[in-house]
C-alpha cells in the first residue's frame, strides 16, 4: 500500500497569486475554494500522465472540451456537461485533455462530506441545474458578511443532487447487467487496490470473494472487458508510478516494496506494461515539473 502522499492536490499547493496575475476569477474562505470558468491549460491543476492523490474533496463541472482520466484505476471519458465529484484520497491520473477545456472547480472542505467518487454525464437539463447552483454558490459566497451557512447548504445540495443522479444511473445500468455481477466487480476492484502489491494470482482474489477462479475470470471479463491480471497489473503500475514520482527510493527499494524479486524484474515488468523503463518515467515526470 502507499505509505505517504505523493503529488497531493491540496489547498496548500494552490498558487492564488498566479490566479491574480492571470485574472482568474476565484473565491476562497477557510477551506472552501471556488474557481470560475477557468481554462485548464492556463491553470493545469493536473499534469497529464502524472498520478495524484486528492487531499480534499473536489467538484469539477466541465463547461467546454473533453478529457480522459483514470480515477481509482477506472478509466473515464468526460466532456462538456460532465460533473466529476472526487472524495478525499482519490487517486487520479489525467490521460488526455483537449486544448479548449474550461471548468468550474471547487474544493469543498471538511464540512461537506464526500464519501464516494461520482462521474456524471449529464443531460442538458441536469447540466443547467448544476450550472445554476454553481452560480448561486458564487453569488452567495461574495455577499458581505460572508454567508457561511447558506454556502454550506448550497454545496450540500449540489453533492446530494450528484449522488442522487449517480444512484439513478447505476440503477439503470443494473437493469442491463445482473446486480450480482456488478457487486462482485466492485468488490474485486476494492480488493485489488488493497492487495495488488502483495497478491498477484487469480486464486487469491477468487478465494477472497468465495468463488472459483474460473467464475471470477468470467465475471471480470464480462464486466470490464479486461482480465483479472490486467486489473492487478494496472494497480501495480499505478503504485509504482507514485513511488517513482516521490524520487526518494532506489529502484531495488521500490522493487522490494512492490514484492518483486529484484530491481531487474521490476524494470522488466514496468517496461512491458508502460513501454518505458522506471528511470525513463522518472526523467519524463521530472521534466514536467
From TrEMBL:
Domain of life of the native organism: Bacteria
Record keywords, A-Z: DNA-binding, Transcription, Transcription regulation
Annotated Gene3D superfamilies: Homeodomain-like (1.10.10.60)
InterPro entries noted in UniProt: Homeodomain-like_sf, HTH_AraC, Tscrpt_reg_AraC-type_HTH
GO MF assignments: DNA-binding transcription factor activity; sequence-specific DNA binding
Domain HTH araC/xylS-type intervals: 186-284
Protein name: HTH araC/xylS-type domain-containing protein
Organism: Segatella oulorum F0390
Amino acid at each position: 500500500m502507499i505509505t505517504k502522499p505523493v503529488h497531493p492536490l491540496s489547498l496548500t499547493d494552490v498558487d492564488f497569486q498566479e490566479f491574480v496575475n492571470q485574472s482568474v476569477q476565484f473565491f476562497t474562505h477557510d477551506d472552501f475554494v471556488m474557481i470560475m470558468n477557468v481554462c485548464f491549460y492556463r491553470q493545469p491543476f493536473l499534469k497529464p500522465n502524472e498520478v495524484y492523490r486528492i487531499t480534499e474533496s473536489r467538484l469539477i463541472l466541465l463547461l467546454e472540451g473533453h478529457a480522459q482520466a483514470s480515477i481509482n484505476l477506472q478509466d473515464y471519458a468526460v466532456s462538456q456537461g460532465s460533473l466529476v465529484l472526487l472524495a478525499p484520497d482519490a487517486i487520479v491520473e489525467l490521460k488526455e485533455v483537449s486544448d479548449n477545456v474550461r471548468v468550474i472547480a471547487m474544493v469543498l472542505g471538511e464540512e461537506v462530506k464526500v464519501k464516494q467518487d461520482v462521474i456524471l454525464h449529464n443531460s442538458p437539463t441536469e447540466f443547467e441545474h448544476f450550472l445554476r447552483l454553481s452560480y448561486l454558490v458564487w453569488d452567495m459566497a461574495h455577499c458581505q458578511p460572508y454567508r457561511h451557512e447558506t454556502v454550506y447548504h448550497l454545496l450540500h445540495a449540489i453533492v446530494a443532487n450528484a449522488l442522487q443522479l449517480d444512484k439513478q444511473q447505476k440503477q439503470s445500468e443494473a437493469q442491463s447487467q445482473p446486480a450480482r455481477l456488478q457487486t462482485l466487480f466492485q468488490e474485486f476492484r476494492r480488493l485489488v487496490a488493497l492487495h495488488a502489491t502483495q497478491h498477484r494470482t487469480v486464486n487469491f482474489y477468487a478465494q477472497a470473494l468465495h468463488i472459483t477462479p474460473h467464475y471470477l475470470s468470467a465475471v471480470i471479463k464480462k464486466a470490464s472487458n479486461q482480465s483479472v491480471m490486467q486489473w492487478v497489473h494496472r494497480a501495480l503500475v499505478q503504485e509504482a508510478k507514485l513511488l517513482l514520482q516521490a524520487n526518494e527510493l532506489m529502484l531495488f527499494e521500490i522493487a522490494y516494496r512492490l514484492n518483486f524479486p529484484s530491481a531487474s524484474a521490476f524494470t522488466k515488468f514496468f517496461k512491458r506494461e508502460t513501454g518505458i523503463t522506471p528511470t525513463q518515467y522518472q526523467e519524463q515526470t521530472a521534466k514536467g515539473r
